[in-house]
Amino acid sequence: MKIGELAKATDCEVETIRYYEREGLLAAPPRSESGYRQYAQREVEQLNFIRHCRSLDMPLADIKRLAACAGDAVASCGEVDALVDAHIARVRSKLASLRALEAQLVRLRAQCGSATPRAACRIVASLQKAAHDEACACHPARARQSPDGFRIRHRGGTQLVAAAQPQP
What we know:
The protein is mostly helical and 168 residues long. The protein folds into 2 domains: 3-74, Multidrug-efflux Transporter Regulator, Chain: A, Domain 2 (Orthogonal Bundle), CATH 1.10.1660.10; 76-142. The protein has 6 helices and 3 strands. A 3-stranded antiparallel sheet has the order 1-2-3, with no helix packed on it. It is elongated, with a radius of gyration of 25 Å.
């Protein structure tokens, strides 16, 4: 089958299939005399495997390793277990970040009622405070002093130590 037929059979975009080939997730298929890629059922299965892993938000590097493990009938599951455990840890970390983001947005939303005139909107005012490195509703401890006297600014949950003079 040609690449368009493979795309239709797997509900995958042609460019995505080509991308997976470039990244080494799919082996480059043989070509017909006229230069068209020729795919078989094996590639349908490989592509479905990749797509299923992607639906679990697995990184491409992990999918490559999983595919290699799937092709090795005598290897133990240890590497597979480690890959999935690492992915679970990444998912848990993302969940924690999303919960923190949700809490920030809830604090921000609590600043204003929908009946408030736009010019007096406390959400916009809070966002503008943040633009000036001031504490805001979603980052109440936005600016503070470090132990050495330098100002610490919070951006996206990380701390950046300003290279300016110590604050009095």
